[in-house]
Write a structure and sequence with these properties.
Layout: E1 2-6, H1 11-22, E2 26-31, E3 42-45, H2 52-59, E4 64-67, H3 80-95, E5 99-103, H4 117-124, H5 128-142, E6 147-153, E7 155-157, E8 165-168, E9 178-180, H6 181-194, E10 200-206
Parallel strand pairs: 1-2, 1-4, 2-3, 4-5, 5-6, 6-10, 7-9
Antiparallel strand pairs: 8-10
Helix pairs in contact: 1-6, 2-3, 3-5
């Protein structure tokens, strides 16, 4: 399909672009720094947080969107997710692009109660501002007319794609659960086709499929 990748220069975004190309999708990469895109794809330069016109331009002719937008290790997001989704949702609705798979973080919203205690402490202190911003932004996505899926991966690693991981609205987790970015990208692209979690959130973590 014709697929727009948001956050295409980040570590998970690069995995999304690479795996989407391997699967035969026609990819458009949206990025603030187009020179950072090394794959041979159409590139649209823009800032989802500040420039709604660039978002609208990137959406022309697309059939679906996958997003790995994020701020890396920034702890004070300046309403990044809220403002980005505030531009993305109306642009998609106007363009008639309905399907979006959005990567969030495990610990945002109701997923926090599934986390082991050490992780919950980090979510309520160090990551509080980032996760609060994500929750506000995702509330706008949830009440939109779009066919959304919000993906909540546990701690991200740079490990290989295994294709073997757990996915569910609720998972029993212990210790410090994690999942590779490559497996997250694998799931997100599969979800575009399967629609197993349409208009739902889904937690991802490594381990045997169940």
């Amino acid at each position: 399909m014709k697929l727009l990748v948001l956050g295409a220069t980040g570590p998970t975004g690069r995995e999304l672009v690479s795996q989407a190309l391997e699967q035969g999708h026609e990819v458009t990469a949206f990025a603030r720094r187009p020179e950072a895109i090394t794959q041979k794809v159409r590139v649209v330069q823009g800032d989802a947080m500040r420039d709604p016109y660039s978002v609208a331009d990137a959406l022309k002719g697309q059939e679906a969107v996958v997003s790995a937008l994020g701020l890396g290790k920034v702890l004070f997001p300046n309403r990044f997710t809220e403002r980005s989704i505030g531009n993305i949702v109306p642009a998609m609705e106007r363009a008639g692009v309905k399907r979006i798979v959005w990567m969030s973080s495990f610990g945002v919203g109701d997923t926090a109660r599934q986390a082991p205690l050490p992780m919950r402490l980090a979510y309520s202190t160090l990551l509080y501002a980032v996760f609060a911003d994500k929750e506000v932004g995702e509330a706008e996505l949830r009440k939109s007319t779009l066919d959304w899926t919000i993906v909540y991966p546990t701690t991200l690693t740079d490990g290989p794609k295994t294709g073997t991981y757990r996915a569910g609205e609720e998972l029993k987790l212990e210790g410090l659960p994690s999942i590779s970015r490559a497996d997250v990208a694998h799931f997100m692209l599969r979800e575009l086709v399967d629609n197993a979690y349409l208009r739902r959130g889904v937690v991802l973590s490594s381990g045997s499929v169940r």
